[in-house]
Amino acid sequence: MLNLEEYFPFPLDDFQLEAIRAINSGNSVVLTAPTGSGKTLIGEFAIYRGLSHDSRVFYTTPLKALSNQKFRDFANQYGENKVGLLTGDISINREAPILVMTTEIFRNMLYGEFDEFDDPLENLESVILDECHYMNDPQRGTVWEETIIHCPTRTQIIALSATIANADQLQNWIEKVHGPTVLINSDKRPVPLDFIFCSVKGLHPLLNNKGNGIHPNCKIWRAPKGQKMRGKVGRIMQPKSPSIGFVISKLAERNMLPAIYFIFSRRGCDKAIENIKDLTLVSYSEANMISKKLDVYLKNNQEAIKDKFQCEALKRGIASHHAGLLPAWKELVEELFQQGLIKVVFATETLAAGINMPARTTVISSLSKRTEDGHRLLFSSEFLQMSGRAGRRGKDTQGYVVTLQTRFEGAKEASALAISKPNSLESQFTPSYGMVLNLLQSYTLEKSKELIKRSFGSFLYLGESSGENIILENLDKDLIELKKITSNVSWQDFDAYEKLKNRLKEERRLLKILEKQAEEKLSEEITNALPYIKDGSLISIKAPQIKRKIVPGLICKKIYESQKIKSLLCLTVDNLFILIKPSYIVSIFNDLDAIDVLGLEVPKMYFSGEVFRGDDMSQCYADRILEVSKKNDLQTPQYDLTMEVLAQQQQINNLEETVNDHPAHRFGDSKKLKKYRKRIVDVEQEIYMRKKLLEDKENHNWRTFTDLIKILNHFGCLSDLELTEVGQTVGAIRSENELWIGLVLVSGYLDDLDPPELAAIIQAICVDIRRPNLWCNFKPSIKVIDVFNELDGLRKLVASQQNKFHIEIPIYLETELTGIISEWARGKKWKDLVFNTSLDEGDVVRIIRRSIDVLSQVQYCIGVSNKLKSKAKLALKAINRFPVSESNDLIQVSEDINPATKRIDNNT
User: Fold this and answer.
1) Taking the alpha carbons of 804, 807, 810, 811 in that order, is the dihedral positive or negative?
2) Strands 576-580 vs 564-572: parallel, antiparallel or unpaired
3) pLDDT tens digit string along 705-724?
4) How many domains does the chain have?
5) Are residues 214 and 156 in the same domain?
6) Range(s) of the domain holding residue 353
7) N or C end of the chain: which has fewer CB within 10 A?
8) pTM higher than the cut 0.85
9) In this predicted model, what pLDDT tens digit does every residue of 575-602 receive, in sequence order?
10) Contacts 24+ apart (CB under 8 A), 868-871
């Protein structure tokens, strides 16, 4: 057992002691704790423990810069001979017991095929996955999942992460796919944080005394009275933001420096330095120390351009730190900040990702940022990551997080983020061409499927699906109950029955149309015949005043107006006199003798529709009408007796009989059955959709995997799941699109290029720079342009296959900036290079380093010609020079073993 006091001569926190006990027990560990709380100490203990067992320990980080920093720290701590470094283009002391590397390099090793005596995983006791919360990174998160899935079970995994909401899920997943794992959670900060809000009036407490809400005195900005939130020109008034000089001055007054001042743009960071060019934050002696360091830097980095104002700002204790700056300059800034000589660093949020630059205060200039998907508020984890840089353990008793009033965000948004919980880890696992080829090279298709389904996403899905399965169980119960209720129903008969009923309904509708047509025709005939009909003629009447019943009657008197019959005075069988319009007559019975009405005394009536009850005399006539009606049908209107109407009525009668005799007629309430039927269909549909969604989620990654196999087959990388020479070449590459780069390398188009031209093509196929207003004065050669034209056809073929299977993996062929790398390869000076492009120095370094990364892999691709391998080595040597190459203390010492892939070069 190691003596902790010998290695850590200071009191350890409870969570550190708990983690050490877990490591000593041989279990894997998931440790989540706030930034700056001392998680690295756990990794250091695992290293001491591994050394005491004569075992190896790997320390992985997500960033090359962080790996470089850890390499230097560990070399000082454990001795240079015990520490090695692998970061793609750098290989230092790779046989060392402590090996620092980027997580991608370790993932590549896990896919490896090694000689018996060259397996770097042999005797590997522990692997420390620093910044494990990088699993959330959309572009690179897959790497962490692959690493954990394929890590040998004999090796302890020590996952160090910032606080996350679902640490228990991460621990349970690692335990499931790797082995026994202990979770240690700590939300306690060794240096407590005080959240402060800054407006143009000064610094104010942001949170209340309990720390669970906004401070009552921290007012939300409102427009001045009388301005009604609008300016003179009708625009909405916006709050003023405190100036950078004002904020820094206030921090200096309260002894809150040094500070990291986060600004989410490179230009913003550089402009901030200019805005405080008259501000000095260091003493005379500190300024002298900075000047000496700067002189050494400029002497050793004569090619490195640095604007004069950056150097002057540095001497005043102020600097910027972002991806547009040279790595060597950023290292100088980091070193001076760690020594307490720089008091304010204006940095983009990348500084929050693991680099060891703790400060007393962090200033977060905005609570929102621009992304590819538009402007959005910061995620709570982003806010917490930046906040976590505040408070130096062992130096400060209090850390400070300052948020600023901006035009669009104020104390309300700041307080909400300050008390928010961290975000959950989400799986970013996505199969790639390289993953497919490496799995098929080592495993069967069935085993590959099992490994794909061991992803963190699949694990989370299983947890989510348990709730979904409960819903499905309840739906199944509902369906069984509904089918039980309707068990006596034959839905086939019911459907036929419903069709018959619908047909009957339609035939009745048609009957009404036919009746209406016959009625209109008959009415026209009656109107034409009335002038020739005698008084006393028998008729049938249908009028509103007699409830629209068809009633027998006789015509007593015709009343004319302008030689047209205006109305008719009639007597009905019910002894009612009624004055009606001619259209109210529905039948005239010409074949029946008229009744003599000369002796009938009729009342005087003036209004159409008027009704008058008859007397005893008229009753005699009514009786006569009844007598005739009994002998003859006087109540069926003539339009009901037309051939079409009669035929339609007969058809309806037959249908009614068929409906009544149908087996389904005995099933019961048809409306209720329809509701049951609809509910059954709805439940069945919901069950189907939910099961399909579950299946789609469960098999999403595997479907992508099989689609990638089809694409790889199309381009000859596989033959019956066996890797061809082209497939082995593609599988040896590590990039965003291994297939595209592999096909370019084996195409033969690159073989006749000289090294600078080759470097230009490699840059074009592996680097995508998205910066506004890009330009470059160096243009590619005619030979390079010809190769571009040839490769464009190949790019379209790859894109066509990817589109066919909805695969979204970038296929770069960017020609705009290729002149930069070809000129650099031809020996152009750094100053001349940078002055001829709109890119920042850091961007130029990045695209050349990414090209170096791919060029360094060319010699390990078996399908590539020896001519191309030789030129790749020359191109690599030409472009890997200062300031692109790493600092002088990071020297590439190995040319025989590819650190970015897995195998020894057997061709050298």
Assistant:
1) negative
2) antiparallel
3) 999 999 999 999 999 899 99
4) 4
5) no
6) 193-219+237-419
7) N
8) no
9) 999 999 888 888 888 888 899 988 898 9
10) 868/745, 868/750, 868/751, 868/758, 869/907, 871/753, 871/754, 871/755, 871/758
